[in-house]
Amino acid sequence: MIYVLIEREVAEDLETTYEDAARRLLTNAYQTTGFVDGHTYTELDNPRRRFTLSKWKSVLHWQQWYDSEERREQMAQLAPMLLHEERITILERA
Question: Can you tell me the distance from the alpha carbon of 19 to that of 29, in angstroms, rounded to the nearest whole number?
């Protein structure tokens, strides 16, 4: 099992629009082979800073989702709402 931490910072006044698009993206990930679980978080002191922590059966499963046309299309809609490119960190249990 691996964990994928995605960090994003939403542009000012786009939080609601971002939430809708991010929810669709996570919902589609839920339906992907190899996806185990996922949760989203907001930084306590900066509500525009968002984190998604998802659990995958393997790096291969994550990579297939990351490279999928479906994710690319959804990220094309989500990316303009971000201040910076998303940061992705792949983690494993120590």
Answer: 15
Residue 23's SS3 state is helix
Domains of the chain, each with CATH number or no CATH: 2-91 (3.30.70.100)
Q: Note the pTM of the prediction, 2 decimals.
A: 0.91
Q: How many CB atoms lie within 10 A of CB 19?
A: 15
d(CA 17, CA 22): 9
Q: Could you read off the pLDDT of 59-81 as tens digits, one per residue?
A: 999 999 999 999 999 999 999 99
Six token digits for residue 74 = 């959804």
What's the angle, vertex CA 6, arms to CA 33 and CA 39, rounded to 5?
65
* Spatial distance between the Cα atoms of 74 and 9, rounded to a whole number of angstroms: 17
